[in-house]
């Protein structure tokens, strides 16, 4: 997605132009101008004041915990290295200003350089031998799951290296270990349905990884769009303390292999682990709940969602007696969860009479807090009746945009 900027300095002014939504994290710029529906600033220096909904700016002064994206570089001696930035807490602005950021350089000799044609068996043998992975650009059709079992394993893709599990297996599974870093990959569903595309930690994971969490940076998922692809569930997180930094989980809504019965995909993200933190979470067009959050202590900073464009009629998109599925579901058992800057949009092209009863569905508990929410009926094609639970809204053909500031205890409500 092109709706984000992180770990960056811009000397002049940033103008958001036609961007509908945006997240800036750990940035520094001269100034900012422009807005549309949902603009979020986390640890961003010189950011505008958080004045949601007028204008719709949400500001969080510090980034609570993050690890910046890995990168490949050439050192002074002409040797290739991969830099792994250190974990940082309560930060603002870019980590590299004033000198080299904290972290560790890994020699290229520590990596298996994966090239097109490499098999899952070969890659798994290299992982088992203790190698990290550097994927060169290409499409990798995998007949088996890549299994990451070693703590601190590094996986870096160049040029959006694409992994496609062809046999109905996950593309990657990660054991319940410390400090795995995965960055720069596109996971592409194949025509053979995968019940799950990626899993971090097996079911029942319980270890505390707060000192050295696993992190995903610029990892994207696609079901359809390039060709027919199917996946029941896209990303499941069972381990605790995982950091998600900019991920796009996309059931295709255009191009190739797209249709209600073609690129079937029930749910994008399922979080079972505790204390998971997400920055720039994009989840779109799934056929049931887009995101299900079962763990405690979750935090999301910016959420972007479009509901599925293509339910053929209301009867095809019902959750029991509820019309449609929420874009973001926090389980009734959860007692602590907090989210800032969330947008959900509907475009029910096939039947504009379709209604989603709500965008965000959460337990009404004092430890579950949502801030700065917006729903939009794009072009008036469809209705989202309420913003969160039975509060706020509607967004429909008469009133396209609805906003809600805080939940619970949210006296400020404004529809524009």
What can you see in these coordinates?
The protein is mostly beta strands and 416 residues long. The protein has one helix and 33 strands. It is globular and about 65 Å long. The chain starts with a strand and ends with a strand.
Q: Distance between the terminal alpha carbons, to the nearest Å?
A: 26 Å
Number of H- or I-type helical stretches: 1
Instruction: Give the low-confidence spans.
Output: 410-416
| CATH architectural designation of the largest domain | 3 Solenoid
Morphology call: globular
Provide tags for this entry.
nine-stranded parallel β-sheet; Pectate Lyase C-like; disordered C terminus; 13-stranded mixed β-sheet; 3 domains; 33 strands; single chain; 416 residues; mainly beta; globular
List the helices and strands and how they pair.
Blueprint: E1 4-15, E2 21-33, E3 38-42, E4 57-60, E5 63-66, E6 71-74, E7 80-85, E8 88-91, E9 103-107, E10 111-114, H1 120-128, E11 132-135, E12 139-142, E13 146-148, E14 154-165, E15 172-174, E16 181-188, E17 194-200, E18 215-223, E19 231-237, E20 243-251, E21 267-271, E22 277-284, E23 291-293, E24 298-306, E25 318-319, E26 322-323, E27 328-330, E28 337-346, E29 355-361, E30 368-377, E31 383-388, E32 401-407, E33 413-415
Parallel strand pairs: 1-2, 2-3, 3-4, 10-11, 11-14, 12-14, 13-15, 14-16, 15-17, 16-18, 17-19, 18-20, 19-21, 20-22, 21-23, 22-24, 23-27, 24-28, 27-29, 28-30, 29-31
Antiparallel strand pairs: 5-8, 6-7, 7-9, 25-26, 30-32, 32-33
């Amino acid at each position: 997605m092109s709706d984000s900027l992180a770990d960056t300095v811009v000397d002049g002014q940033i103008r958001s132009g036609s961007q509908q939504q945006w997240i800036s994290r750990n940035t520094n710029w001269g100034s900012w101008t422009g807005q549309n529906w949902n603009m979020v600033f986390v640890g961003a220096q010189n950011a505008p004041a958080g004045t949601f909904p007028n204008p719709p700016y949400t500001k969080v002064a510090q980034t609570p915990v993050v690890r910046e994206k890995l990168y490949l570089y050439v050192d002074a001696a002409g040797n290739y290295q991969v830099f792994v930035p250190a974990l940082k807490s309560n930060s603002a602005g870019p980590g590299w200003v004033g000198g080299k950021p904290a972290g560790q350089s890994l020699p290229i000799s520590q990596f298996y350089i994966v090239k097109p044609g490499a098999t899952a068996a070969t890659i798994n043998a290299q992982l088992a031998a203790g190698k990290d992975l550097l994927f060169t650009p290409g499409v990798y059709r995998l007949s088996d799951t890549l299994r990451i079992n070693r703590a601190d394993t590094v996986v870096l893709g160049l040029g959006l290296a694409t992994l496609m599990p062809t046999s109905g297996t996950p593309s990657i599974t990660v054991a319940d270990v410390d400090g795995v870093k995965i960055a720069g990959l596109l996971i592409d569903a194949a025509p053979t349905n995968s019940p799950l595309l990626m899993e971090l930690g097996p079911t029942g994971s319980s270890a505390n990884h707060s000192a050295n969490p696993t992190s995903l940076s610029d990892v994207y998922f696609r079901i359809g769009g390039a060709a027919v692809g199917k996946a029941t569930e896209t990303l499941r997180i069972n381990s605790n303390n995982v950091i998600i930094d900019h991920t796009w989980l996309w059931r295709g809504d255009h191009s190739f292999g797209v249709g209600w019965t073609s690129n079937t995909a029930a749910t994008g993200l399922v979080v079972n682990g505790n204390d998971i933190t997400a920055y720039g979470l994009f989840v779109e067009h799934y056929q049931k709940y887009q995101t299900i959050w079962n763990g405690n202590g979750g935090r999301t900073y910016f959420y972007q969602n479009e509901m599925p464009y293509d339910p053929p009629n209301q009867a095809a998109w019902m959750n029991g007696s509820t019309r449609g599925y929420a874009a973001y579901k926090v389980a009734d058992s959860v007692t602590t969860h907090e989210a800032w800057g969330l947008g959900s949009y509907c475009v029910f092209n096939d039947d504009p009479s379709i209604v989603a009863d709500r965008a965000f569905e959460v337990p009404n508990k004092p430890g579950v807090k949502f801030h700065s929410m917006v729903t939009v009926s794009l072009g008036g094609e469809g209705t989202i009746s309420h913003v969160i639970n039975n509060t706020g809204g509607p967004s429909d053909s008469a009133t396209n945009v609805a906003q809600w500031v805080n939940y619970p205890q949210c006296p400020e409500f404004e529809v524009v």
